[in-house]
Amino acid sequence: MNDTKKSSQPVLAVTSGEPAGVGPELCVRLAERRFPAHLVVVGDAELIEERLGRAGHGLVVRPWKPGMSPEAGVFDVFHCPLACPALAGVPDPRNATYVLNVLDRAVKGCVQGDFDGMVTAPVHKGVICDAGVPFSGHTEYLAAKTGTPRVVMMLVGGGMRVALATTHLPLAEVAHALTRERLTRTLEILHHDLAASFGLAGPHILVAGFNPHAGEGGHLGREEIDIIVPVLEQLRAKGMRLTGPLPADTLFAPHRLRDADAVLAMYHDQGLPVLKHASFGSGVNVTLGLPIVRTSVDHGTALELAGSGKADSGSLFAAVGLAIEMVNARRRRA
Question: What are the chain's domains?
Answer without folding.
Answer: 1-148+292-334 (3.40.718.10), 151-289 (3.40.718.10)
